[in-house]
Amino acid sequence: MKKNTGEQHLRFAVLAVDVALMTVRDGRLLIRLAPVHRPPHFPNSKGLPGGLIDPKETAEEAALRIVKAKGHVESTVYMEQLYTFSELNRDPRGRVVAVGYIALIPWDELSTSEREDTDDAWWVPIEEARGLAYDHDLIRKTAHNRLRARATYTTIVSKLMPTEFTLTDLERVYESILKTDLDKRNFRKKILKIQVLTALNRKRTGGAFRPAELYRFTSPSVKEIEIL
Amino acid sequence: MKKNTGEQHLRFAVLAVDVALMTVRDGRLLIRLAPVHRPPHFPNSKGLPGGLIDPKETAEEAALRIVKAKGHVESTVYMEQLYTFSELNRDPRGRVVAVGYIALIPWDELSTSEREDTDDAWWVPIEEARGLAYDHDLIRKTAHNRLRARATYTTIVSKLMPTEFTLTDLERVYESILKTDLDKRNFRKKILKIQVLTALNRKRTGGAFRPAELYRFTSPSVKEIEIL
DNA sequence: CCAAAAGTGTTTTTCCTACACCCATGT
DNA sequence: ACATGGGTGTAGGAAAAACACTTTTGG
Question: Which alpha helices (DSSP H) does chain A contain, by range?
């Protein structure tokens, strides 16, 4: 076993995190982009919020910090590690190994300013987020696939819902992630059967139609369930 | 945004891989251990095969290299990234961020010497691999959970099977991973229905009983399937 | 009274589970 | 001929899928 080939051998790489921060608005799955300006390779580009890990924080702590800084999000976000990207040339300036994260937040919990597209952060429909800098197209695709897979066998979508919502709201979120149409009656039967929702016995009124019962997720934790 | 807080800030961590190399022998799920001798914290301990990533290789390449070196395995192994462990004190000597991998190999494809327990590598039943150095108990547990989960909705067990096997062989492997008894008839119906096996129209003879039909996995790739 | 979304039940089909006996071979 | 693991079918119940009309409200 080799030992001590020197500091530059042991610590050759820069450690970073890249975050696929996602939300759902009006039945559309959105992802947060941030400007990337790194000539000559990526002048005036867009990419996922990302940044270096500090010596005194874990990768997840770094991801949370970066979502707040570059994603302009103050609210509590849900974080889940996605994959670690270690290709030699994923950053043309040098060796950067990035731990990718999925971050989810309900649109309704963002403050007005957080929802805005500012100069250095935009919410865009995930299928329109192409041509990103570095290997961020790959990270986005990996994140999208993972979210879709986990939506079918966990309660991860709870992290995209406001505290109160109607069954139709919930169905729309599932449909936007899975990109399928679900049968309203069967969806309601299944989601109520698995006992993860609590009816609030209050209704959301306001539209020119019958008011809808409000629900919340009973538990804040993401649980494994049967397939939806 | 901070820039250039110095090299020691940017490259503070050592990057490593730790590999949960697993196989199945006689219906038992085994994991490969290697000696760890790092006084004062881990004198004469055991741990998963692991080592540093080189500047010119990806994490996966490092994992493959380490399985060959520390795991004493020459054959082709299947690799799947597990999780990245970045706790500040997972290695008491300094900051080490480790990308964990699951590696699978059919017992039958190991050479005689690879199967042996040598001075610096042992195959042990996974439930007996406790008290490992560093955070390797956590990595082992994470790997075991992941393998169990993926066995139920992918064809990952194909990576633990020899090229030819009987349906009973396959059932034994599932049972050892899932730690349940499966119904022979139902297991056969399901596994044949999902169309991932090809019958070789040859039989394995030799025992004092009816010869068993031999099968192989139709495709070498790990596919998502319905739950088993 | 009209438009709009909420809410609800039944039938059909598919899938899962439980279960026991005969078959082909080697000794 | 006997011991051993290989191989097969069916019936009953549970879950999934398909499908259309009535309800409640605001305007």
Answer: 7-10, 59-69, 112-115, 136-153, 167-178, 184-193
String of DSSP letters for A75-112:
S--EEEEEEEE--TTSSTTS-EEEEEEEEE--GGGS-H
Instruction: Tell me which residue of A136, A125, A129, A228 sits closest to A186, measured CA to CA.
Output: A228
Nearest CA in chain B to A86: B58
A195 CB contacts (<8 Å, ≥6 apart)? A218
Å: A204 CA to D23 C1': 16
- The architecture that CATH gives domain B7-152 is Alpha-Beta Complex (3.90)
Probe site for chain B from A11, A82, A91, A142 (most B CB atoms < 10 A): A11
> Any residues with CB less than 8 A from the CB of B205 and at least 6 apart, and which?
B211
- Which superfamily does CATH assign the domain made up of A7-151 to? Nucleoside Triphosphate Pyrophosphohydrolase (3.90.79.10)
Name the residue ranges covered by the structural domains of chain A.
7-151, 156-217
What is the CATH number that goes with domain A156-217? 1.10.10.10
- pLDDT tens string B103-154: 999 999 999 999 999 888 899 999 999 999 999 999 999 999 999 999 999 9
CB atoms near residue B184 (< 10 Å): 11
Option in A1, A58, A153 nearest B87 (CB) = A58
Residue nearest the C1' of D3 (CA based): B208
Question: How much is the mean pLDDT over chain B?
Answer: 93
* Structure token pair of residue B181: 């008894």
How many cross-chain Cβ pairs, A to B, lie less than 8 Å apart? 62
Instruction: Bin B177: left if φ > 0, else alpha if -120 < ψ < 50, else beta.
Output: alpha
Q: Tell me the per-residue pLDDT of A2-23, one tens digit each, with 9 for 90 and over.
A: 344 456 678 888 999 999 999 9
Question: How far does the CA of A209 sit from the C1' of C3, in Å?
Answer: 8
